[in-house]
Amino acid sequence: MAKLQVELVAADRRVWSGEASLVVARTVTGDIGIMPNHQPVLSVLETGPVTIRTTGETGEGTVVAAVHGGFLSYADGRLSLLAEIAELADEIDVERAERALDQAKADADASAERRAHIRLAAVAAGTR
Q1: 3-state class of 39 per DSSP?
Q2: For residue range 85-112, what is the model confidence (pLDDT) as tens digits?
């Protein structure tokens, strides 16, 4: 079975790297699923969850991350997700995200509210 080599990188660090069978991400043109042997693609990432179906030495599983802006590039079996900000679901402090959501609502800050919702959605998806 063909494998997809994935690297999720934020501006400040490498967030996740490994083999996958499927990656789903939100782009400016909608959600996209990338599997091995996909056509080459370059797209702008929207704020949203990224779901990675892992394979390889650790077995099958799912990694979920909250991604806030950046780029997605696929060619020759390698997928790069270059994000402005990215957090794995298990790194997100739920209480802090809930406080950020409350503050964004109080400030009527739609962008901050969306970021907080995505962080909480990533946590919920990561616990399934």
Answers
A1: coil
A2: 999 999 998 999 999 989 989 999 898 8
8 A C-beta contact, residue 38 and residue 76:
no
Sign of CA dihedral 89, 90, 93, 99: positive
How far apart, in whole angstroms, are the C-alpha atoms of residue 77 and residue 79? 7
**Distance separating alpha carbons of residues 88 and 121, to the nearest angstrom:** 11
The partner residues of 61 in beta bridges, in order of sequence, read 54
CA separation for the pair 77, 36 (Å, rounded)? 6
DSSP SS3 for 29:
coil
SS3 60: coil
Structure confidence by residue, pLDDT tens digits, 54-86: 987 766 899 999 999 999 999 999 999 999 999
Alpha-carbon Rg for the chain, nearest whole angstrom, is 15
